[in-house]
Amino acid sequence: MAETTGPERARSAEQIELSVREATAGTAATPRDAGRWAAKVDRLDAVARDGVRGTNVAGRRLTGPVQGFGKMWQKTYRLSLGPQVTPEQAIATWKAHFPEFWPAGNRFAGALTGISPGDVALLDLAVGGGVKLSTGVFVLYADEESFTLMTPQGHMFAGWITFSAERDEAGTGVQAQVLMRANDPLYELGMMAGGHRKEDVFWAQTLTALGHYLGVPDAPVQTRTVCVDTRRQWRHAGNVWHNSMVRSLLQTVTAPVTALRPGRRTG
Amino acid sequence: MDGPRVTMDVRHIGETAAVVDIKGDVTAACEPVLMSAYEQAGGLAASRLVLNFGGLEYMNSGGIGMLVTLLVRANRHRQQLAAYGLTDHYREIFELTRLDEAITIFEDEASALASTGTAR
Question: Over the stretch A111-138, which tens digit does the pLDDT of each residue have?
Answer without folding.
Answer: 877 899 999 999 999 887 778 899 999 9
